[in-house]
Design a protein that fits this description.
This protein has 368 residues and is α/β, with parallel strands linked by helices. 45% of the residues lie in helices and 16% in strands. The protein has a five-stranded parallel β-sheet, with helices on both faces. Bound molecules: 6-O-phosphono-alpha-D-glucopyranose. It catalyses: D-fructose 6-phosphate + L-glutamine = D-glucosamine 6-phosphate + L-glutamate.
Length: 368
């Protein structure tokens, strides 16, 4: 087992560091000689896409959080309303699924029982089912109409990291391919996004250099009972994943909040010394995030911000700032989650937790 950790203390940190390669493989396996996305096996025609009037993205756990980011990409490029739901909720909510519905499932293992039962139900109602899976030949991959595999490689740590970032890459590729096919994005936009996507693996490697800074910050969080994560839009989805990660492995209570909702209740929880992790990568929401930062700072929060390197203004209202490279808003989640994964890892390590096998959790949950 030590050998397969390749010198790392835990599988989780090894897998965090595998993300440049995992995102690169996921993308490059699906690019042709002209640098265009090839999804020939996902043979949904323009006529079928024109008929699809609703899209559900359904998953559990971290894959659900990736699906929240996926919604932003699919709505942006395909111009169809998307609902992202938790499989165990969706299954019993009597959803409006028919032959004009596309259901996109995301699952690292491809064996999660709740997600699998959604698949069967959706197919029985005539929907087209496309899955994003990591394990080749898994039940979800086999039973779906179409599958796009992520090329994350085996993920051993219970807390998912590289599966999440590669799932986001997969969602963006699907959205770009379908958008081009349907005519809801231009060829020029499509090629520009692919060019940006190709930069992502190196940018992930760049963000990983924040490790020492994160180690320092983790020391401030080790004794805290509650940690809050704030964001708007896509950043709110990333905040959800950051909070889940730290809960899973460090057993610290954490919650993600939509920053605009703070004033409707949550701000009552903010007092001296409470850590608040603020994601501020979405340019059109940046000013609003700045004012949320100021609100929590004024109440004594320890504000830790994650933003793009061009947004130096955050320093005035933050105790610590972690910078990521400048990137299109839709891609930002792949980079901004990296410090959150590292933070969860180092807080758990400081607390002496069993990082790769957290209590009560299983890598794959095959019972409903
Ligand atoms: C379990 C794991 C989570 C994972 C979830 C969904 O709860 O502990 O890390 O996100 O299942 O798994 P899947 O294999 O469907 O992505």
């Amino acid at each position: 087992e030590a050998a397969s950790k390749a010198g790392y203390d835990h599988f989780m940190i090894k897998e965090i560091y595998e993300q440049p390669e995992a995102t690169r493989n996921t993308l490059e396996r699906r690019l042709d000689a002209n640098g265009e996305i090839k999804l020939d096996d996902i043979n949904i025609t323009k006529e079928q896409l024109d008929k699809i009037n609703k899209i559900y993205i359904v998953a559990c756990g971290t894959a659900y959080n990736a699906g929240l980011v996926g919604k932003h990409a699919v709505e942006r490029f395909l111009k169809v309303p998307v609902v992202t739901d938790i499989a165990s909720e969706f299954r019993y909510s009597d959803p409006f699924v028919d032959e004009n519905t596309l259901v996109i499932l995301a699952s690292q293992s491809g064996e999660t029982a709740d997600t699998l039962s959604v698949l069967r139900e959706a197919k029985a109602k005539g929907a087209t089912v496309l899955s994003i899976a990591n394990v080749v030949g898994s039940s979800i991959a086999r039973e779906s109409d179409y599958t796009l595999y992520t090329w994350a490689g085996p993920e051993i740590a219970v807390a998912s990291t590289k599966a999440y970032t590669t799932q986001i890459v997969a969602f963006i590729m699907i959205a770009l391919d379908f958008g081009l096919k349907k005519g809801t994005i231009t060829k020029e936009e499509y090629m520009n996004y692919i060019a940006e996507l190709k930069e992502i693996p190196d940018q992930v490697a760049e963000v990983l250099k924040c490790e020492d800074q994160i180690k320092e910050i983790s020391k401030q969080l080790v004794d805290k009972n509650d940690i809050f994560y704030l964001g708007r839009g896509l950043d709110y989805s990333t905040a959800m994943e950051g909070a889940l990660k730290i809960k899973e492995i460090s057993y610290t209570h954490a919650e993600a909040f939509a920053a605009g909702e703070l004033k409707h209740g949550t701000i009552a929880l903010i007092e001296e010394g409470v850590p608040v992790i603020v994601l501020a990568t979405q340019q059109r929401l940046f000013e609003k995030m700045l004012s949320n930062m100021q609100e929590v700072k004024a109440r004594g929060a320890n504000v830790i911000s994650i933003t793009e390197v061009t947004n130096k203004e955050v320093e005035k209202s933050s105790d610590s700032v972690i910078y990521i490279p400048e990137v299109d808003n839709i891609l930002a989640g792949i980079l901004s989650v990296i410090p959150l994964q590292l933070l969860a890892y180092y807080v758990a390590k400081e607390r002496g937790c069993d990082i790769d096998k957290p209590r009560n959790l299983a890598k794959s949950v095959t019972v409903e």
